[in-house]
Amino acid sequence: MAGKRNPWGNPPGKGGNGGGDDGGDGPSEDAPAGGGNGGKSDGPRNPWLPGGGSGPGTQGERPRRSASIEDIFKNRGPEGPRRAGGGGGGPNFRIPTGPGGRNWFPLALGAIAVVWLFFSSVHFIQPREKAIVTWLGGKYSHDLDPGTNFTLPWPLHVVDVENVSEIRLERIPEGASEEKLILTADQNLVDLSYLIRWNIKDLTLFRFQLADPEDTLNEVAEAAMRAAVAEQDLDTVLTGEGRANIELNVRTNMQAVLDALESGIAVQGIEIEKTDAPSAVIEAFNDVLAARQDAERNINDARRYEQQQLAQAQGEAAAFNNIYEEYRLAPRVTRQRMYYETMEAVLSRTDKTIVEADGVTPYLALPELRRRSQEATLTVQQAEGQ
Predict the structure, then answer these.
(1) What is the pLDDT of residue 36?
(2) Which pLDDT tens digit goes with each residue over 258-273?
(3) Listed ranges 38-42, 127-131, 186-190, 224-228; the one with the highest mean pLDDT
(4) Distance between CA atoms of 286 and 293, rounded to whole angstroms?
(5) 330 — alpha (psi -120 to 50), left (phi > 0) or beta?
(6) What pLDDT is stored for residue 91 in this prediction?
(7) Is the pLDDT assigned to residue 150 strictly greater than 70?
(8) Which residues, other chains included, contact 72 with Cβ-Cβ below 8 Å and sequence gap of 6+?
(9) How many beta carbons lie within 10 A of that of residue 173, not counting itself?
(10) Which of 153, 264, 287, 340 has CB atoms 3.0–4.6 Å from 205's, for a disulfide?
(11) Average pLDDT in the chain
(12) For residue 78, is the peptide bond before it cis, meaning its omega torsion is within 30 degrees of 0?
């Protein structure tokens, strides 16, 4: 291996900058006199530099220099190796240019800025909507009415659009299986659930006046409902007319309180969905209701019978008055007619027949004959059926 050069430096045991086992600093074989650190010596050569790793130890060669990251990437680019006769390197990305070498980047950046300004500054508010503009999403600035509106671009102006005409629903209690027990005026408990219909009347007050407008609405509704039910007894609460009065009172009281709080909420209506007894006494309560229904049915039957008897008495009185008028016109004829009608009514219900004539038996057992005839007819029918 003597006399051969190491591409990474001096051979072992030689001088110069190359390291060996003896670490000597003497001159290299290929270096001129006065070598060592003072002359031209072979040091570690970079194989990535132009020249394929040949060192500057011989005359006429290019002096070596330290490698740098710029040189590496420059020489690995598409231009350096091609100029040096080497192969192609990796791709070199460049921003596309327009005609005449004009750069498209400023135009693209300007187009993006124009689109951003348009979409963040122009707002189309629908007829059922309203919007609030705030500075940087915090401090109130102004309102936007339906139509086309202009503001400062985002994030200087932040626009919050809300549908103020939409009817919103709040159910109390929220779950269908939950109980809401309310005390009535006669010291009874009723399980009552109801529905609140409301919408936004003033969007500015709704957003900034109360910390939580929906929770405030529920609390005001519950207070108004308890106050209205406490003024009615249990029977009134359970009937349809009593429910209508309670719903009207609750809506009126709720709107008064919400207006005093400047909540920006308009109550459109209250609807009571359920009025039942508590689940612990529901069976006894149903028995009481059944007994009340029976009592009401008996009372209705008695009143119906009363009306029938009254109508019959009034009809008989009218008939008597008619007969009296006829009697006043012809008393004898009327008396005779009344006698015949009375005897006909009496004798039609007796079983005896009396015949007053010569040669005829005064009494005939006609009922007995009729009974025997009926028995014989029944016997014949039974025989035919067998």
Answers:
(1) 43
(2) 999 999 999 999 999 8
(3) 224-228
(4) 10
(5) beta
(6) 53
(7) yes
(8) 48
(9) 15
(10) 264
(11) 75
(12) no
Output the six-digit token pair for 377.
């007819």
Domain chopping of the chain, boundaries = 107-163, 168-283, 306-350, 351-381
Give the chain's largest Cα–Cα span: 197
Which residue has tokens 């612990």? 280
Separation CA 147–CA 152 (nearest Å)? 17
The dihedral sign for the CA sequence 330, 332, 338, 340: negative
* Radius of gyration of the chain from its Cα atoms, rounded to whole angstroms: 59
Q: Quick one: which of 354, 331, 358 has its CA closest to 343? A: 354
Least confident of 94-98, 124-128, 281-285, 295-299: 94-98
Round to whole Å and give the CA distance between 97 and 76: 24
Per-residue pLDDT band for 18 (boundaries 50, 70, 90) equals: very low
Which of 294, 309, 182, 190 has its CA nearest to residue 239?
A: 190
Residues in the chain: 386
Give per-residue burial for 229-249: e unless 16+ CB within 10 Å, then b: beebebebbbeeebbeebbeb
pLDDT (0 to 100) of residue 361 = 61
Residue 152: count other Cβ atoms within 10 Å of its Cβ: 14
Res 121: pLDDT:
78
Residue-wise over 36-54: b if at least 16 C-beta within 10 A, else e? Answer: eeeebbbbbbbeebbeeeb
Q: Which CATH architecture describes the domain 168-283?
A: 2-Layer Sandwich (3.30)
Q: How far does Cα 4 stand from its chain's mean position?
A: 87
Residues β-bridged to residue 340: none
pTM of the full structure? 0.48
Whole-Å CA distances, 307 to 299, 304, 311, 313, 314: 12, 5, 6, 10, 10
pLDDT in tens, 340-371: 888 888 877 777 666 666 766 666 666 777 77
Rama region for 73: left / alpha / beta (φ>0; ψ in -120 to 50; rest): alpha
Coil vs helix vs strand at 111: helix
Residue 168, amino acid:
R
What is the DSSP secondary structure assignment for residue 105, as one 8-state letter? H
Q: Around 66, how many Cα atoms within 13 Å sit in the side-chain half-sphere?
A: 2
